[in-house]
Amino acid sequence: MPPSTRLPHFWNRLLTGVLWITTAALALTSSANAFDTVILDPGHGAHDRGAAIGYVYEKHLALDTARRVEQLLKKEGLKVIMTRSRDVFIPLQDRSATGNRPRNAIFVSIHYNYNRGGSGAGAETYYHFSSSYMLAAYIQAYLVQRTSMTNRGVKSAGFHVIRATTKNPAVLVECGFVSNSSERARMLTGEFRARIAEGIAQGIIAYKKSD
Ligand SMILES: [Zn+2]
Question: What is the CATH architecture of 34-209?
Fold first, then answer.
């Protein structure tokens, strides 16, 4: 630094102090995991049944699972917003609008999967923006650990709710295949849906504690 622009010692110290405080404040406020609100988005609803085999509808499984996750997260002191808590139709744009509304939040969409032929099995978690990857990875890891389902991995996709939710980390969980007869039999039991909900909730809490 040329002599003419050298700061007196006091001012130099002051500037260093201000810079340090600013950096510390930014580090605190920009922490990706400093959320206090979880937006849960049970897929489908009303005439939109989602995956369906006989009378087993994805819309019912997703809502039941989301309600269980809601209870577990509230016990941990987190605020929970549900995009739907009844069997109603919510347009995708309304779901992502809810996902963008609160600050310091994360968005978790809950679905069950389907494939033709019924051979598909296991759980997978999707993200769109790379800033949502870690949330997806934590949920996927705990979900698989808690349920012993086949690990189909963390995947990137452009589903509307995770693409249009831009203000908060957003993921979409596929909790097993309605089209797979053995997985369907398991997911019809409350005990198995409780395990799925525990996996999702534990993944969310582990992500919150990570940094
Ligand atoms: Zn779905």
Answer: 3-Layer(aba) Sandwich (3.40)
- Per-residue pLDDT for the chain (211 aa), expressed as one digit of tens each? 444 445 555 555 554 555 454 444 444 444 558 899 999 999 999 999 999 999 999 999 999 999 999 999 999 999 999 999 999 999 999 999 999 999 999 999 999 999 999 999 999 999 999 999 999 999 999 999 999 999 999 999 999 999 999 999 999 999 999 999 999 999 999 999 999 999 999 999 999 999 7
d(CA 113, ligand 1 centre) in Å: 6
For residue 173, list its beta bridge partners.
110, 125
Give ion ligand 1 contacts, CB < 5 A.
43, 50, 111
Q: How far is the CA of 103 from the centre of ligand 1 (A)?
A: 26
CA 43 / ligand 1 centre spacing (Å): 5
Whether 179 and 115 have beta carbons less than 8 Å apart is answered as yes
Distance 51 CA to ligand 1 centre (A): 6
Torsion 100-101-106-112 (CA) sign: negative
Count Cβ atoms within 10 A of the Cβ of residue 49 and give its class: 0-12 exposed, 13-18 middle, 19 or more buried. middle
- Residue 101 C-alpha to ligand 1 middle, in angstroms? 23
